[in-house]
Amino acid sequence: MGLEEEFLKNLMDYMESREGNRMTMDREQNTTSKGAKKNEGEPVVLTDGTIDAFVAAHPRAVVDCYTTWCGPCKELAKDLKVLAKKHAGRIAFAKVDVEDNTEISKRYSVIAVPVILVFKDGGLEDVCVGSLEREELEQWLLDVFEGGE
Questions:
Q1: Which of 73, 115, 116, 118 is catalytic?
Q2: Range with the poorest average pLDDT among 11-25, 58-72, 91-105, 135-149
């Protein structure tokens, strides 16, 4: 079992035990014929306890920090879902409700939403506070990931 596959299995087991029916990932739909996990364009739901493993398992990771009551967050989530599908296998997308996960809010100084955290090779590479149009967002992400290579 590869690192990413093991991480996703552990994450899904944790989410099932903690959130039951709120799971956003389905084991069967997110498994290839060889058993390796793949990104189906649905951002993974993270928590205070899972963000570090997610970032460590993905060389290019985008984490959407949101709240359930935030209108711009809902619009941004739609764009991120589209980008997750478009860049599946190259960029991993996730989301975290920062009201329910206050350690993430503290660690990354999230005091307003939406916030996008961009991780490259395990380290925080860039942050965007507020919303961007989908095309601007995609170009920004590509610039962050391709810059310095």
A1: 73
A2: 11-25
Closest C-alpha to 117, from 89, 136, 144:
144
Tell me if 67 is assigned to some domain: yes
Query: What's the gap between Cα 144 and its chain centre?
Result: 16
pTM summary value: 0.73
56-76 as b/e: b if 16+ CB within 10 A = ebbebbbbbbbeeebeebeeb
Q: Where do the H-state alpha helices sit in the chain? A: 3-19, 51-57, 71-86, 102-107, 134-146
Q: Which of 55, 70, 117, 137 is catalytic?
A: 70
* Domain assignment of residue 142, given as a range: 40-146
65 is catalytic: no
Q: Is 70 a catalytic site residue? A: yes
